[in-house]
């Protein structure tokens, strides 16, 4: 399996619900994890792809976050909501294009609602927290790939 | 928009001060520093707003002190005893939501303490997109813009400032102590009489403003309530058996809010939380917290220093809750 295959595989996975896959070949092992539930920024950027290694060991080699990928963090401790109400559709979806100033989510702390807005124009490349989950101050919520 | 210094507000104050006696047009004109023709125009506008102003040749204008007071921003601005909260009063017969309008005003640099009032709301909102019943002519729907000099992480303190203010105003108005449900619903006989929802506009390191939205069921009658809330809501008039002057209620609320906001700015959350605990009725009781698909059952162990609800589960673990619906069971 070469880098082209991995890219194709990742592209395929992106359109499915599969969040983790392990592939073992003679040449080595490959693990792809794609997740939205990565509470810490350093945990991963979008989809960490573990490169196949010559030895039969798994090396977790998350690529560095490109410079044009911006992190939107939580301004306060609270609960993360992706929509204005449980029935409403999410403010933004994975892969969605956002404008500067567009609402990305709501953080609630004790009935104080804070609409978090994107400070960047670009594309949502990661949603790092699940709807309804608690978040800490400064916790990364989204990765936005800024438009050039 | 009206302020304490607006001409119509000052005219109402002048006429009220005379307790029904006539004030000449030239006296009003001299006091306000405007022409007699301008005074006449303002009087005409005040009449259209519902003020029963009598005009007699050679005597002047008078306002019957026994006449019922209208509900509008002139009345509120003329009755206010505050210096910050209500320094600018916006009144609308109908709005989608006072919070939404206050938010727009906040973004347009409306000053600290600006208030928005609507006689009715078409999209009155509660937490997480829930509806706040907002028919015309009966209740108080108001939003207050505050610009606290605190970091966004502390802005939820204003939830408790708002809760003690509303509870205090309700208690003063009906002579009965309400209970506060965490964090800020105000209940009488276990039924909701007032709800509060706060929205914030912030930068990473500073709060631009917080909008405190308050809905008080003032003169709503049980039969006018939708069936969905009839068993869980009440109103001040249902408790007292007589009608409530909404302008006076608004002024009482703004006075309490100004008082507690100053206490908060001077002394932090601690004195506010201490007062809040005095209204809080769930401590020591069995509670169930519904928080987005998760349910926590246990005994309420009060609130943490930051206001988070503490629930001791059967396993003996104390859970901290920062958002959710709490019911005593």
What would you note in describing this structure?
The complex is a heterodimer of chains A (148) and B (329). With 148 residues, chain A is mostly beta strands. The radius of gyration of chain A is 17 Å and the shape is globular. Chain A is built from one helix and ten strands. In chain A, a hairpin with a 2-residue loop joins strand 1 and strand 2 (28-33). With 329 residues, chain B is α+β, with helices and mostly antiparallel strands. Chain B is built from ten helices and 14 strands. Chain B has helices at 7-17, 25-32, 36-48, 73-79, 98-107, 157-174, 227-230, 236-240, 246-267, 269-279, and strands at residues 53-56, 60-63, 89-95, 115-121, 140-146, 179-181, 185-188, 191-202, 207-216, 286-291, 294-303, 309-312, 318-321, 325-328. In chain B, the strands form three sheets. Chain B has a seven-stranded mixed β-sheet, with helices on both faces. A five-stranded antiparallel β-sheet of chain B has the order 13-12-11-10-14, with no helix packed on it. In chain B, strands 1-2 form a two-stranded antiparallel ribbon. The longest helix of chain B has 22 residues, at 246-267. Chain B is elongated, with a radius of gyration of 22 Å. The interface between A and B is medium-sized, with 25 and 30 residues. Strand 7 of chain A pairs parallel with strand 8 of chain B, so a sheet runs across the interface.
In short:
Chain A has 148 residues and is mainly β. Helix content of chain A is 8%, strand content 34%. Chain B has 329 residues and is of the alpha+beta class.
Beta-strand content of chain B: 25-35%
Range of strand content of chain A: 25-35%
Largest sheet of chain B: 7 strands, mixed
Regions with little confidence, pLDDT below 50 for 5+ residues of chain B: none
Identify low-pLDDT runs of chain A. Answer: 35-61
Strand order of the largest sheet of chain B: 3-4-5-9-8-7-6
């Amino acid at each position: 399996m070469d880098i082209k295959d991995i890219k194709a595989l990742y592209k395929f996975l992106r359109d499915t619900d599969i969040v983790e896959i392990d592939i073992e070949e003679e040449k080595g092992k490959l693990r792809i994890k794609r997740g939205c539930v990565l509470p810490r920024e350093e945990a991963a950027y979008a989809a960490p792809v573990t490169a196949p290694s010559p030895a039969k060991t798994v090396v977790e080699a998350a690529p560095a976050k490109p410079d044009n990928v911006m992190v939107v963090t939580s301004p306060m401790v609270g609960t993360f909501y992706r929509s204005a109400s449980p029935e409403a559709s999410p403010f933004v979806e994975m892969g969605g294009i956002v404008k500067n100033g567009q609402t990305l989510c709501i953080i609630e702390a004790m009935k104080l609602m804070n609409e978090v807005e994107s400070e960047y124009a670009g594309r949502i490349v990661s949603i790092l927290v699940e709807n309804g989950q608690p978040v800490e101050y400064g916790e990364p919520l989204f990765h936005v790939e800024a438009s050039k | 928009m009206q302020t304490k210094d607006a001409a119509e507000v000052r005219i109402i104050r002048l006429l009220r001060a005379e307790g029904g006696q006539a004030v000449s047009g030239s006296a009003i004109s001299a006091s306000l520093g405007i022409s007699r023709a301008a005074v006449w125009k303002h009087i005409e506008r005040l009449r259209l707003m519902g003020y029963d102003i009598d005009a007699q040749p050679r005597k002047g204008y008078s306002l019957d002190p026994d006449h019922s007071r209208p509900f509008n921003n002139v009345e509120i601005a003329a009755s206010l005893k505050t210096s910050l909260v209500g320094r600018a009063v916006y009144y609308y017969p109908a709005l989608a939501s006072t919070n939404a309008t206050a938010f727009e005003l906040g973004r347009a640099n409306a000053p600290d303490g600006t208030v928005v009032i609507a006689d009715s709301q078409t999209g009155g909102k509660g937490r997480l997109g829930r509806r706040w019943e907002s028919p015309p002519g009966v209740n108080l729907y108001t939003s207050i813009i505050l610009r606290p000099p605190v970091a966004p992480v502390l802005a939820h303190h204003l939830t408790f400032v708002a809760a003690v203010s509303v509870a205090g105003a309700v208690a003063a108005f009906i002579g009965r102590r309400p209970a506060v449900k965490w964090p800020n619903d105000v209940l009488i006989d276990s039924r909701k009489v007032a709800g509060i929802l706060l929205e914030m506009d912030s930068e990473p390191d500073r709060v631009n403003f917080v909008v405190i939205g308050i809905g008080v069921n003032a003169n709503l009658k049980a039969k006018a309530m939708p069936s969905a809330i009839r068993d869980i809501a009440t109103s001040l008039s249902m408790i007292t058996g007589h009608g409530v002057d909404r302008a006076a209620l608004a002024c009482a609320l703004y006075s309490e809010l100004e008082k507690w906001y100053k206490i908060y700015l001077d002394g932090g959350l601690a004195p506010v939380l201490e007062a809040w605990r005095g209204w809080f009725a769930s401590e020591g009781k069995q509670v169930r917290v519904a928080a987005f698909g998760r349910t926590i059952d246990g005994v309420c162990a009060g609130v943490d220093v930051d206001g988070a609800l503490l629930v001791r589960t059967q396993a003996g673990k104390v859970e901290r809750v920062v958002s959710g619906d709490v019911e005593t069971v």
